[in-house]
Each structure stands twice: as structure tokens, then as C-alpha cells.
Amino acid sequence: MSILDYIEKARALPPAKRHQIAFGISISITLIIFVIWVSTLHLRISDITASSTGDVKSIATPFEAIGDTISQTYGDVKQGFDTFLSQEATSGLTH
């Protein structure tokens, strides 16, 4: 069943039920964002602590923060793949 089928089913529901569904979806999305925010809270607290000692570089804009995060994540994933591939090569499991 595709998303379009779900939308068509929702259109057939009474308005009160559609409002309940919309409210449930919005609460779910809000909770997901809240969980992500809380899970990164310790990183921000450690940055504040480190910045008081001068160990952290200041980030001028949110776009630079996103760029730094993306590049760091890319580097971590690449390093993980490189480690995996080197372990595969040394264990003789490659073709």
C-alpha cells in the first residue's frame, strides 16, 4: 500500500478523526525532534565547558556547524569502512 492510498483513506474519514491523526503525527514528529535534541545535549554542554577553557573553536554560523558535522560524520563513516575493509583483507574473506 502506497502513501497515496493512505492519503485517500484519510480523506474518507470524518474531520474529527483526521484532526486526531494529524495531532498524533505532529506529536510523534515533535517527540522525535525532542529525543534528538536531548541526545545531543551532552555534546553542547561539553562544548560550553571546553569553550570556557578555550579548547573549542567558535562557529560563526549554523551553516558552518552543519557543514562541520557533515564532514566529521563523513570522515567517521569513511574511517569505519576503511577499517572494515582492512580487516576483511587481512582475514582473507575477500574474493
Explain how this protein is built.
The protein is mainly α and 95 residues long. It folds into 2 domains: 58 residues; 36 residues. It contains 4 helices and no strands. The two termini are 39 Å apart. The model has no long low-confidence stretch (mean pLDDT 80).
Note the topology:
Layout: H1 3-12, H2 15-39, H3 41-53, H4 62-91
From the structure above, extract its key features:
82% helix; flat; mainly alpha; 95 residues
Task: Write down the Rg.
Answer: 23 Å
Distance between the amino and carboxyl termini: 39 Å
What structural category characterises the helix and strand content? mainly alpha
User: What is the tally of beta strands?
Assistant: 0
Name the shape in a single word. Answer: flat
Give the helix tally.
4
Report on the biggest sheet: none
Low-confidence region ranges? none
Total domain modules:
2
What percent of the residues sit in helical stretches (DSSP H or I)? Answer: over 70%
**N-to-C SSE string, H for helix and E for strand:** HHHH
- Report the average pLDDT across residues: 80
Note the beta-strand portion: under 5%
